[in-house]
Amino acid sequence: MTNLYWKISICTLLTLASSAFASGPGSTTEHGPEEGKTTQAAKPYPHIEEVIVVYKTHFDIGYSALARDVIHEYRTEMVDRVLDAIEQNRHQAKEQQFVWTVSGWPMKQILWEGQAPDRRQKIENAIRSGNLVVHAYPFTTHTETAEMEDLVRGLGHSSSIARTYGLPLPRDAKTSDVPGQSWILPTLLKHAGINFFHLGGPLVNRTLGLPPMFWWEGPDGSRLLTLYNNGYGTSPLPHKDWPYKTWIYISMTGDNAGPPSPDTVKKDIEFYHKNAPGLKVIMGKLDDFGQRILKEDLSELPIVRSDLPDPWAHGNMAMPDGWKLANAVRPSIPAAEALVTLEKCWGLYRPEIKDTIARAYEQSLLFSEHTWGLATQHYISQPYGKAWEATIARGLPVNAKVIEESWQEHFDYIDNVRKLIVGTYAEAVATLADSVNVSGKRVVVYNPLPWKRDGLVELNACYWPGFSALEAVDNGQRVILDRLGSGPTSPGGKIVRFIAKDIPPMGYRTFIPAEIRPANNGLVADKAAAVIESPYFKVVFDPAKGRIRSLLDKRTGRELVDSTARRGFGQYFYERFGRKDIENYLNAALYPQYKAHRYSLTKYDVPANSVYASALPKNMELYMHKSNIDVSAVMTGRISGPGMPQNVSIRMTLYADMPVADLEVGYEKQPDGWPEAGWICLPFKFDKPRFRLGRLGADLDPITDITVDNVNYHQIWVNTGIAIYDDKGYGVGICPMDTPLVSLGRPGSHKFSRRYEPTDAAVYLNLYNNHWQTNFPNWVGGKRSSRVRLWTFEKFQSEPALYSPSMETRVPLRVARSTCKPGVLPAAQAGIILSRKGVAVTAFGENPDGDGLIFRLWEQGGVSGKLTVKLPKGIEATKATPVNLRGEKTGKPFIIKNGILEMHLRAYAPASFVLEDVR
Question: Is 115 domain-assigned?
Fold first, then answer.
């Protein structure tokens, strides 16, 4: 780091600690209480020529009221106040008129189709005049919890507004409140033509120790000019050592507070005349600063190449059922879009789904928006222990039910995705099955991923006659079936399960009923020895201790389990936290002056004499089942305390034809307000372990790729999976299908460190927690389960060891049956074929930013180089125009010859094209 960085950052941190970003006379409050705020006496700044003043409020979709009421307020009373402020200042010189900045999604709500015509006219006039502006980002997100294409489509809210009113696309973006953000943001924003980003924090959390301004480098090497401070906005004037000609004062009001009073502009100008005479004051937007500062000499600006795991991300797992649904349904959005597009290319009639896809992406991103509910601490005083048990026995009071309603609003976002997409996708797969040129009963398996693969398929075959196998029509290969679901009036299993093999990339294969004699499949179930085996793994259970004693990789003879670990492999681990645990967390994570926040960011009101307690299940019952395709064993039992009793199950499944082991841990518990957490424990037998995390947009080494202070080192969100391996590269891949929050080395709830490097070879998957006492759900209960897939690799490489197996786990094969008349499609064919694995097709469908088809790739294997794409039959496109993530042209069209598109694709970078002359 340069001396300039240290001079600016140390001074800025001192300013933060003493004044928590001072406010000018016209400014208003930030998040939460006014503790610690003072007014800083500014000094003349002879080297600074201009200050850009940006007015904005912090947008919470909820928190201050139910989400629906917040949206109504933005559409009516709040925008009326904005328009009043614009009107009262419209006679000023243009650069001294009131300008209000709004993020993209709330502006779309303000412009909704039900807006009153007279108000709409005023709003549109303000947009055209530049007094009401949008920045590029839709709202503040827990970014690492989203999907890549969620974020891309989220940028469309602002760009569609700009295009509607004939304005340039915004080149600026901002978040606030959430302390840390995924380093996909530099990649995302730069590839969208966005040049300046303000990363604002929550004030109360300890600063990340970042420079005040820096180039933030994403995993693909993109560098984004980033202004950082630990508050919603910035101070009216910088520290005296600010070396640039331009400063930006981001004047923020608190949560959904709306615009400042109309006379704020006058007061702020008077402030600058008094405290910085001669300084040119411009009321404007974030990009006004961005454009000016980018013209200055930034050669001394430091480069930060680091992910910034969100210190608040753990709160998301207070809604485990929501995340289980999200992980299941989100991959179906691009899959459904692509399949419908492929079917059109293949000559099938398909109704338009563009609006459905747009709505699904909107709802999916809303599930990653940072507001999950009301400010709990304003509504209830949480009872604990016996008082809580009595409360739930009587039934929750009205105020608590209102809180639960706000959590339901957030859950509904992802449930809306389910309602929009599950049927749409199923209809597309069924249409595929109807359309193949195969007579009679047939089963079609579709592969949404752009490489050939095998996978487990489940199909309801009710009312079809019994058959023991399926035969691939194109090559005659037969696969044996497993049948489940016999009933008292209809013997013979109705649910058919089989391993479908060699399904073409983004293509399908047709099967017909057949017969086969069972053969030795290498599966073993020995209850007396508590052992199950497949050709790939051997598992030994220990019901007395409620754990898996051994997991043997039969191909190498390696034992994977540390049988000496205090918490056993596959074991359910329950924790309840005491006052000391909470105090230790608060002292490490928050600044001490923010007393009130101790009761909202944790359950600080837990009884003062409360202490830590935990439990592991023991003396469990063991059951086994072997089928034609797999073998499984499940242990069932309970823990009697601490807290209310819980039922627990631990299941492991091995397959005859897949080199994976599937673990599933279930629990059934009463809702409890006591601070608690549940975990799946995975202690591995590795000396000096290395970890690799499949984060959003890239996989990373948590030691070398997370290099800043006070981010969430103890609970990290993963998108694909985790790899743990030894110094020779041998290791285990882990894909948590339902629980993406991961702790390395030790359970991470109520843990916070400035820096942390795991040394123990253990992975803990968070099943749930209720750490927070605001915003996120306060209690978790019900009957749930969480699935984890495990596999081994000889030598770690990102694509084969982590990315591809994780995606095959997260994105299952899809299946449909049909008895329609024969159609026109061949029995098997590929869709889009890529020359190498490790590249995601994140979009193939109608262009959301204009005409044509959008085709988007995103490298995920960490490999730069040439990529050849074979487009699907029937598309007959002649040109592919490169565009950025908002549909703006970035270069000359690529020529498509014989359906082949060639390009150079950088590691972890997206590449987007609009396919032209499509026939």
Answer: yes
- Could you give the CA distance from residue 86 to residue 101 in angstroms, rounded to a whole number? 12
Domain contains 89: yes
Alpha carbon distances (Å) from 390 to 377, 384, 385, 397, 672: 20, 10, 9, 12, 11
Do 181 and 74 share a structural domain?
Answer: yes
Question: Is the pLDDT confidence value at 26 over 70?
Answer: no
Distance between CA atoms of 28 and 681, rounded to whole angstroms?
Answer: 47
pLDDT bin (cut points 50, 70, 90) of residue 35 is: very low
DSSP run (H or E) holding 681: strand 676-683
Q: What CA–CA distances, in Å, run from 29 to 66, 85, 340, 643, 869?
A: 21, 18, 49, 41, 53
Segment 59-72, tens digit of pLDDT: 999 999 999 999 99
State the pLDDT at residue 23.
Answer: 38
Asked if 363 contacts 420 with a C-beta cutoff of 8 angstroms, the reply is yes
Residue 491: predicted pLDDT: 67
What would the two tokens of residue 219 be? 């995993």
Is the domain of 296 the same as that of 202?
Answer: yes
Query: 57 near 279, Cβ under 8 Å?
Result: no
pLDDT at 822 over 50: yes
Q: How far apart are CA 751 and CA 831, in angstroms?
A: 47
Domain that residue 255 falls in:
3-12+45-304
pLDDT digits (tens, 9 = 90+) for 412-451: 999 999 999 999 999 999 999 999 999 999 999 999 999 9
Residues 867, 902: contact at Cβ < 8 Å? Answer: yes
Structure confidence by residue, pLDDT tens digits, 131-142? 999 999 999 999
Q: pTM of the entire structure?
A: 0.95
CA dist 101 and 173 (Å) reads 11
For residues 570 and 679, what is the distance between their CA atoms, to the nearest angstrom? 9
- The token pair at 127 is 């947009």
Residue-wise burial string across 380-407, b where 16 or more C-beta atoms lie within 10 A, e elsewhere: bebbbeeebbebbeeeeeeebeebbebb
Structure tokens at 339: 């399949």
Mode of pairing for the β-strands spanning 196-200 and 172-175: parallel
| pLDDT mean over 179-201 | 99
Helix, strand, coil share of the chain (percent; to 5) = 25, 30, 45
CB 63 within 8 A of CB 775: yes
Considering its fold, how many domains does the chain have in total? 4
Local structure of residue 45 (DSSP, 8 states): -
Give the domain-ending residue among 402, 436, 470.
436
* 415 and 452 together in one domain: no
CA distances to 65, 840, 848 from 853, in Å: 40, 17, 9
- The type of residue at 788 is V
Chain CA centroid to CA 583, Å: 29
Exposed / middle / buried, residue 810 (Cβ in 10 Å: 0-12, 13-18, 19+): buried
Which of 279, 304, 329 is where one domain is finished? 304
C-alpha–C-alpha distance, residues 86 and 314, integer Å: 40
Please, are residues 285 and 205 in contact by the beta-carbon 8 Å criterion? no
Task: Confirm if 823 and 473 have CB atoms less than 8 A apart.
Answer: no
Q: Do the domain assignments include residue 706?
A: no
Omega within 30 of 0 (cis) for the link into 243: no
Residues 367 and 466 in one domain: no
Number of helices and strands (H, E) in the chain?
A: 17, 47
Does position 1 have pLDDT exceeding 80, yes or no? Answer: no
Q: What are phi and psi of 457, to 5 degrees?
A: -130, 140
Average pLDDT, the chain: 94
pLDDT tens for residues 664-688? Answer: 999 999 999 999 999 999 999 999 9
H-run or E-run covering 288? helix 286-293
Give the C-alpha distances (Å, rounded to integers) separating 819 from 425, 434, 897: 19, 7, 38
Helix (H, G, I), strand (E, B) or coil at 294: coil
In a shared domain, residues 282 and 339: no
Question: Are 232 and 87 members of one domain?
Answer: yes
